[in-house]
Amino acid sequence: MIEITYYGHSAFLVKVGDKSIIFDPFISPNEKASQIDVSSIKADYVLISHGHEDHVADAEAITKASDAMLVSNYEVAVWFAEKGVEKYHPMNHGGSKKFDFGKVKYVNAIHSSTLPDGTPGGNPGGFVIQHEEGCFYYAGDTALTYDMKLIAEEFKVDFAFMPIGDNFTMGIEDAIKAADFVGTKKIIGMHYDTFPYIEINFEEAKKAASKAGKELILLNIGESIKI
């Protein structure tokens, strides 16, 4: 069983064993997460799917304050290294790496990636995390893609973090198909409601998922669950 805490947008802290991993921390600039004290967040790893501001805003601060390891694609990792992040691990598509909490594979995503100062952020991606108790998929910002079927061929995915806000990423209909592709019935929604462009109807999204035989989990900001 792992513990998941939601910090808004696409930011989640996942506790795997005795290690804490935060994904795409965009918290302090997010008005809807104003109750979250970023300085209180401690992580052993910071995983970044791509370079957009709404996924990296608090990564430097959390990484330095926690003496955490930042993991991302090569371009994003090196950009943070140039900002003084001392512990970082660059990856690229199709590559895997064993860490002390489990094994990480960096997989394809269809999106764009430019860092806040305009530096190209390489190609965006997602992460498949294998750990002692199971496996989960963090999709990052992406469209629906047939590459997701390859994940089901290699991994038994217990649940998946998937964008559902539409407009810039998949909407709920494509996220449901993506869940089929990766072989899971449990979707944790992300990248929705933060901005007007990606506002959703919660009840309609949950009904669509339920009708398709999926469980859609929409957490409140600051809420924790165990899976």
Automatic annotation (TrEMBL):
InterPro entries: Metallo-B-lactamas, RibonucZ/Hydroxyglut_hydro, UPF0173, UPF0173_UPF0282_UlaG_hydrolase. Gene3D superfamilies: Ribonuclease Z/Hydroxyacylglutathione hydrolase-like (3.60.15.10). SMART domains: Lactamase_B. NCBIfam families: PRK00685.1 (NF001911). Pfam families: Lactamase_B_3. This is UPF0173 metal-dependent hydrolase CLW00_107220. Coiled coil: none annotated. Keywords: Hydrolase. Belongs to the UPF0173 family. SUPFAM superfamilies: Metallo-hydrolase/oxidoreductase. The lineage of its organism: Bacteria, Pseudomonadati, Bacteroidota, Cytophagia, Cytophagales. Transmembrane segments: none annotated. Residues 8-191 form the Metallo-beta-lactamase domain. It comes from the Bacteria. GO terms for molecular function: hydrolase activity.
